[in-house]
Amino acid sequence: MPSSFGDGTTAPGQGGGSGIPASVDPDKDLKDFSSYVFTDVQRTWRKTFVASGKPYRNAKLVLYTGGVNTGCGSATSAVGPFYCPPDQRVYLDLSFYRDMQQQLGASGDFAWAYVIAHEMGHHVQQQLGTSDEVSRLQQQDPSQRNALSVRLELQADCYAGVWASTAFKQGELDQGDLQEALGAAQAVGDDRLQRRAGGEVRPDSFKHGTSAQRQKWFDAGYRGGDAGSCDTFSPSQV
């Protein structure tokens, strides 16, 4: 069962895989689409940071197959897509695109775009210092580790919605695309993944949020259209 995608803090697993050589790449179209979406999301956030007078350092995209070495350690495709704060890179094993379609029931190009925008949301959190603050709070109170992780993940979903709002206003999306993103958010909810795995649904073990929460916060970002809509850390939220 594929993960609900990585939280950007660790990259467990083994493997020393390599990038995909362009001359033998069986996923050229998906690779090109991934690069396009990544670049567009990054451009959107760079403009936002510049407009607010805040510094922004570009993230980088790594497409790999099988396994990869990262600033967070070595990872296999079992980890799912993830962001690594130490090297500020988004890592995507393109096989997860097929896993989303075949195992999670989340099909469509914009479902994949949502994944990329979510991981870029973690980069935004890294740039703003949010992820470091969450790590500090988790170390200070380990009993809140999972609850804080959920809030961090939901904010990344909200940031994905902010980008989708910008893309929609520019005429690059239609309502069908947005439905694909909401379907992907539902597919990777902790409750749905635990239910699909045939186990007991245990809210205390959630690290990413329920399907309803993930859809709610993507939609909040989309409707709000800016990062101010994404305060998942207030006590009354989530």
Largest sheet at a glance?
Answer: 3 strands, mixed
Tell me the overall shape. globular
The secondary-structure element order is HEEEEEHHHHHHH
Radius of gyration, rounded? 17 Å
E-strand count: 5
* Weakly predicted, low-confidence segments: 7-18
* Biggest sheet strand line-up: 1-5-4
Average predicted local confidence, pLDDT: 87
Domains, number? 1
Structural class: mainly alpha
Q: Strand portion, in percent?
A: 5-15%
Distance between the termini: 26 Å
Number of helices: 8
Helix content: 40-55%
How would you portray this structure in words?
This protein has 238 residues and is mainly alpha-helical. Helix 6 packs antiparallel against helix 8. 51% of the residues lie in helices and 9% in strands.
Brief summary:
Helix content is 51%, strand content 9%. By secondary structure, the chain is mainly alpha-helical. A hairpin with a 4-residue loop joins strand 4 (82-84) and strand 5 (89-93).
Keywords:
two-stranded antiparallel sheet, 238 residues, mainly alpha
